[in-house]
Amino acid sequence: MMTPTTRRIVETCLYVADVDRAAEWYCRVFGFPIIFAQEDRLRALQVAQDQVLLLFKEKATLQPITMAGGVIPPHDGSGPAHIAFAMRTAEAEQWEKHLATHDIAVESRVRWGDHDRSLYFRDPDGHAVELISGDHWQKIADATQQVPAKSIR
Questions:
Q1: Contact call for residues 52 and 45 (beta carbons, < 8 A)
Q2: How far apart are CA 6 and CA 139, in angstroms?
Q3: Nearest residue to 112 (alpha-carbon basis) of 140, 87, 91, 90
Q4: Rounded to whole angstroms, what are the CA distances from 48 to 83, 90, 95, 119?
Q5: What confidence tens digit (pLDDT) does each residue in 45-73 have?
Q6: Which of 79, 82, 111, 118 is deepest in the core (most CB within 10 A)?
Q7: CA separation for the pair 52, 43 (Å, rounded)
Q8: pLDDT tens digit string along 115-133?
């Protein structure tokens, strides 16, 4: 039997102390619109046409949520997480200037080979936010597919 395939990550989440503060920051810095809000528990931001960033209030999802269509299992997280958004490499300097206008310090700059770059900085909850050359991982996947796989024993 063949394994069914997935196509992409549709949503990912960060756990934050204050969903309104976090949502305002992501809207202001990235321009992501809020497409759904639920009390002080959740904000859903549209990252791309088919990608959503969920901002959950820390400890607010420890109990199952019963809805008309079923039950959402409990989940939570703590400590600084990491999330990366795609950028065009040619816009890295523009991004640095944009971040500076919002008083956001770039914590780290990484060059991946000759062409790709990453910028790392923190959101208000201390999460590591990265802007990375949008095709970086596809280049690695393409190169990996050209190299014969080694068996692991």
A1: yes
A2: 20
A3: 140
A4: 15, 20, 18, 20
A5: 999 999 999 999 999 999 999 999 999 99
A6: 118
A7: 10
A8: 999 999 999 999 999 999 9
Q: How far from 74 is each of 62, 63, 67, 83, 127, CA to CA, in Å?
A: 5, 5, 13, 21, 21
DSSP label of 115:
T
In one-letter notation, the amino acid at residue 127 is H
11's tokens: 């949503």
Residue 79, phi-psi category: left (phi > 0), alpha (psi -120 to 50), beta (remainder): left
Task: Tell me the two tokens of residue 64.
Answer: 């199952």
Q: How many CA atoms lie within 13 A of 70 on its CB side?
A: 3
* Full-model pTM: 0.90
Judge whether 122 and 129 are in contact, CB under 8 Å: yes
Helix, strand or coil for residue 86? Answer: strand
The answer to whether 106 and 119 are in contact (CB under 8 A) is: yes
The DSSP bridge partners found for residue 121 are: 129
